[in-house]
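Problem 12. The chain below contains 656 residues. Write out its predicted structure in token notation.
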Amino acid sequence: MKPIGFVLAFGATCAALADGLQTWQWRSPLPHGNTLEAVIYADGRFLAVGFNGVIMTSTNGVSWNGVDSETDFELSSLVVGNGIFVAVGGYGTTLTSTNGVQWTARQSGTTSSLFGVAFGNGTFVAVGESGTILTSTNGALWASQNSGSLDDLNRVAFGNGTFVAVGDNGTILSSTDGAGWTKRTSQTTSLLVAVAYANGTFVVGGGNGVMLTSPNGFAWTVRSSGTSNPFLGATYGNGIFVAVTAALVGGEIVNGPIFTSPTGVAWTSHPAGTMLPLIAVAFGGGLFSAVGINGATVTSPDGIVWTSQSSAITFDDLQAVTFAHTNFVAVGGGGTILTSPDGARWASRQSGATADLLAVAGSETTLVAVGNAGTILSSADGVSWTVRSSGNSFDIFAGIAYGNGLFVATTLGEVLTSSNGVAWVRRTPGPNTGLMGIAYGNGVFVAVSIDLATNVFVSPDGIQWTGQRARTRAQLSLTAIAYGGGRFAAVGAGGVCMTSLDGKTWSTNDLPATDTLHGVAFGNDTFVTVGEFGTVWSSLVNNGVLEPWRRKIFASIRKQLYGVAYGKGTFVAVGELGTILQSDLVAQPRLDLRVLSDSGFGLGVQGEIGVRYRIQATSDFATWVELGAITNNTASTVFTDSMKTLPQRFYRVVSP
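Solution.
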């Protein structure tokens, strides 16, 4: 429930809400869909880092929140020491923070990827690619050290006055100060990627189920783990070592058991509680938390019984989303079709197709989805779908739009039109057009193309097409287009954006960034565009003028976003590996006192047409009572409260 408007019975109104586009929620996977590579526990919470610069925090291992790392590079490891958090990753990335929330990029002095970091004896030690080792006393200034090895160093730990770094080909190095390193005999040539220290023992795990222990980091003993699965992460807590594994089945990485040992010598396997691969594990606050690929999260109080904290409706890429028939409809890989009445609750539908679906659009009576291999599907309700024929199994549909009683679908070289989504007619707008996205507005269809010479095609009827050229910066390609606020907005590679009132004359409205943009939508007087690394930008149409683009920081995602749509007062974005995100309400309804009569108080509800609102009342701000619900059929609807005898009463409108 989201409170979105208040009014006092005597007419005083409260302030409006903040920008709803500043807050986005994961809808699938849950609690999030990021791949996390390392996790620690510090200051009463878990902190985890992963792909594309993602940093997540959790106080309970169940609910996770993202913070902005200010980088898109992979983050592989993190540690805290002397009140300073340090995270390291790709291309020599090093970040520091004093609270785990605000992060500052530092110069590491290397472009080699860093895979592990540890703290001990007042020194941070980072290890990485081709034997790279860096040291720092504050996380800000780093010095390069000679490891004596060219093997990748994957992790590092500190214990018993000694740093131990492990890596490829069974490499184990030890150092008392982080500057001088000695290679040790590991008795294995397997890849080593997990290391932990506790109770006077180093534990190292790696490929082929290799498990090693050492009391000092010098002399190592091979232990029997009872598995051939690679160990990826290890920790100690609650009196036991815990290590996570993965397996390779049919070329796919899948989850493996979780292993425990009180001493590091004898190991026992336990079900992981998830089908998703786990990469790292930490202990804190009386709880083990293991994280991994695509939001995999499991927790355990004892390391033995594990509970999955993650779920997803699909892990297929979602390529497009639309709002029609009072529902959101998302389509994607392998014929995936999902529907939602509100953008929050999603259901999977049987499409009858196996090809990837790349675009979807709807009229008042029909939904149409299109994709690879000439796939066309139609539906009257979004639940039951029928396969239609394009007449050519080599067609690759990139876009579809509906307008003026006609569906128009684009392929790389042609368009197809249909009045009902069932029977289709092939049209030819031009040679080698490379058509991508398409939109309808102001009485014309406008399709964008990756062709550099003629990158826009315009048609009043979907049959006769005229080629145009929108002169993009550095001839960057356009891939998606939307209409709203009296104009078309087309976006594409390198943050390019072109706008036009008629599809023929174009102006440049580029983003102040070089993000590749995959989708764009319009709603509530605002264009929203999405793209790589979870990019979300918005631009308000104010009195017919498109304002400069503003970035919406949503630090909880670093995945590709491919499509975005607007409906019921909210934007929904979809993308890589089943990602579904939803903004807070951006259409802010308002209550005002219209009439005071013998019938009661007449409250005016001003809001978005077609959206359902609930009216609630209270006399003490402690208990709210449901008075009723309305659906705005016009921009303003009157709701009457018959209660007239109370000395005071306050009202609010909420949705959904």
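Discussion. Residues 1-18 have pLDDT under 50 and may be disordered. Students who got a different answer should revisit the alignment rule from Section 12.3.
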